[in-house]
Amino acid sequence: MDFLRFLFGRRQASASIAKERLQLVLAHERAGRDAPDFLPALQRDLLAVIGKYVEIREDLVRVTIGRQNGASVLEINVEFDGSAKPIERPQRRAVPRPKPATRRPQADANSA
Amino acid sequence: MAHVIVVTSGKGGVGKTTTSAAVAAGLAMKGKKTVVIDFDVGLRNLDLVMGCERRVVFDFINVINGDANLNQALIRDKRLDQLYVFPTSQTRDKDALKRNGVEKVLDELKQSFDYIVCDSPAGIEHGALTALYFADSAIVVTNPEVSSVRDSDRIIGILAAKSRRAERGEAPVNVHLLLTRYSAERVAKGEMLTVEDVQEILSIPLLGIIPESESVLRASNTGTPVIFDDQSPAGRAYSDAVARFLGETREMRFVKPERRSLFRTLFGRA
Ligand SMILES: Nc1ncnc2c1ncn2[C@@H]1O[C@H](COP(=O)(O)OP(=O)(O)O)[C@@H](O)[C@H]1O
Ligand SMILES: [Mg+2]
Fold first, then answer.
1. For the residues of A29-63, what is the DSSP string, one character each?
2. pTM recorded for the entire structure
């Protein structure tokens, strides 16, 4: 049986699917669980900086802190539409272009 | 100084009570004076697995409430004189385990025992939190299966954040992974997470691998902790785990499918 399945192509072993799914969901859950409270502020600042170069949506920047082999890992995930064009910026502009309100970094720095 | 071990998992039915009974008996076999406490209020089962259900007179809640003293409630094991069982009550009052009441009882037990093994209920509610709060070490019982691994991860997080050691900023609870109901055959077929998979995901040190084994049901049928069955793979795996817990080095067994002789296949016991 196993031999035949081997010859004629077999389904991906379900254990490896289990592992992948677990790794994904746990990375997410751990991040929510022991997220230090500066994460939202860091996320806002990153949005502001990255937003200067490419158009991004707020919900597509994810900042998480997870554990890997005992060490903490800060993971920054930025997704953007492949077609998103870099924002044209005149060179050496002194004053930064105003950004949409939702992306503006807030002044409160109390959360560090 | 007595050492408090919690046997915990988050998920139910993974083998906490089986493990508590085996580990407590194993420690007693090694000459350690050990008491195993049932924290699963309302669903008393440890007494059955330990085979002392007909000797229960007073329980944990009676002692917490001051209705009985420890000597009246502790049941001395008939097989090992270093081993005691502390049964829980069948009350449905889930909040009967008051934290300071539990603390007082544990402090009293610490005067005369080397090891206090706490059999946690499932879940992450009051009972499970109380069972792990006072722990020095934790045995996180996990099955190679997605929901069990996820729940173990959750419990590991809680141990790191909500135990007394965490709250006091002391050295963290010493956390161990015990992978149970492991089937090397299914792992070999790619149907079950491997021990390496689970270890990689949870990243805590491995105390042992307990194979899925018919002997566990046989043991609970007769009220004999499976560690007494030194012919069974599960019993031997628990002995190894206890030895490792006490600092001995033992090679991991039962990781690879066993080659069974024809004789054993025909006449042997699992
Ligand atoms: N290694 C094992 N092999 C086979 N069956 C097992 C094994 N460990 C536990 N079991 C069975 O699984 C069930 C749940 O075990 P139990 O120890 O009561 O879990 P929990 O206390 O976590 O709810 C029981 O029927 C028990 O006999
Ligand atoms: Mg149980």
1. HHHHHS--TTHHHHHHHHHHHHTTTB---GGGEEE
2. 0.79
